Amino acid sequence: MPNRDTVLREPPLSGIKVLDMTRIMAGPWCTQNLADLGADVYKIERPGSGDDTRGWGPPNLMDARGERTQESAYYLAANRNKKSVALDIATPQGAQALRDLALHCDVFVENFKVGGLARYGLDYATLKEINPRLIYCSITGFGQDGPYAGKPGYDFVIQAMGGLMSITGERDDLPGGGPQKAGNAASDLMAGMYATTAILAALHERARSGQGQHIDISMLDCQVAALGVQNFNYFLSGEVPRREGNAHVNLAPYQVFAVADGFIVLGVGNDSQYRKFCHAAGRPDLAEDPRYRTNTSRVIHKPTLIPELERLFLTRDRDTWLRLLDEAGVPVGMINDVAQVHADPQVIARGLKFSLPHPIAGSVPQVRNPMRLSGSPVTYRNAAPLLGADTQDILGRLPGYDSARIAALMASAEARQDRGAAPSPPSTPDESGRT
Question: What are 286-307's pLDDT values in tens digits?
């Protein structure tokens, strides 16, 4: 946190304007990061329905009277600090309004099927002609080329195809073994983070060249890259990594252990920590055993070491183990559920949970962005916006968009809805984040 004497500067992305043509999770997670860093993010939504996740409840936000609102937890989690503009791009007027907005923006983020925006004149090639400085980021399931480019991408499917489910879950030879997805939308979130990084890099490069560019973010690419060391375990050994449950393939002991009254996680990362563990646990002999002196030998001899430790851990309760190993400087932790996470004294001390005002509910809880900058910190301006709440304000800033023109634009969208016209944007995004 900045000290009292720090003179805070403007947020890092202050003055940057972002058109957000994304929905569900990967794209909105990216644009929420940009908004938290100070960018003005205009979330373009379908009139009448908006981002698909507005309807992905319960749970939903409750209003001041305790009644359920249309604001779902899923939507609220990824759309903070944005402005909502309701535009029907299937109408010529709506598409033109978006092009007019793009002329005055720095970044355009979309997650349509490959080529899906070209028929509206909202593809990169078209927008580049009117704004050469525009950074245009496309987030799709499989990227802009290759045999799968036209396929829709879902977080669950990407976790499977990208290898994550092959290394997640209990070993196949144990009860409960088999493919297992991560407990959250891991592929969506990783794609959103890579997209954020790429956009920041493109903004930095534009400061040198003066030119925008097209960013191609594939969820599958991101998931394969995020396999990290498992890629190299395979490259160097030729052996396909398998599910190891809660154990680590390259370290030992590094896993969950049952104790007398529950479970703990032990994370021994080097030989010094292993020796400290053995002495704290009252088993110095395990530190001197030549089979276990180095991490390499411990990994090789896990079939004898781990059963020995499993018996040892059952001799004491959780709090005793946590105290002993904390005092010895050995990485250890209890396994918190989400309620316990937000009751943890470290989480409370860091202020991770806070609230922002909300026009219907009064306030809505938030989780603080983990990017902490001392001189130009993240800012929190508003909770996820109501559908179309900022349409008049944002469009009214454009040259030639007086109140009459904006009213006509909105009336045209409403007329299409009344006629039961196909929704716009198309309802077949490349990523859906459904988990």
Answer: 999 999 999 999 999 999 999 9
Query: Which phi and psi angles does 420 have, rounded to 5°?
Result: 75, 30
Strand 107-110 to 17-21 pairing = parallel
The reply to whether 344 belongs to the active site is: no
CA distance 200 to 173: 45
Mean pLDDT of 127-152: 97
Supply 167's token pair. 């290394």
> Is there a contact between 67 and 375 (Cβ–Cβ < 8 Å)?
no
Q: What is the pLDDT of residue 419?
A: 66
Question: 7 with 373: CB under 8 angstroms?
Answer: no
pLDDT tens, residue by residue, 297-344: 999 999 999 999 999 999 999 999 999 999 999 999 999 999 999 999
Confidence of residue 426 (pLDDT cuts 50, 70, 90): very low
Strands (DSSP E) contained in 299-404 are 332-334, 353-358, 362-367
Tokens describing residue 284:
């110095």
Q: Which two tokens stand for residue 12?
A: 């890092």
- The residue among 307, 109, 259, 83 whose CA lies nearest residue 194 is 109
d(CA 151, CA 113): 8
Query: Burial of 204 by CB count in 10 Å (0-12 exposed, 13-18 middle, 19+ buried)?
Result: exposed
The per-residue pLDDT for 6 is 64
CB 22 within 8 A of CB 111: yes
Q: Which of 36, 52, 106, 188 is catalytic?
A: 188
Q: Model-level pTM?
A: 0.92
Distance of alpha carbon 247 from the chain centroid: 25
Q: What beta strand segments (E) does 210-325 contain?
A: 213-218, 254-259, 262-267
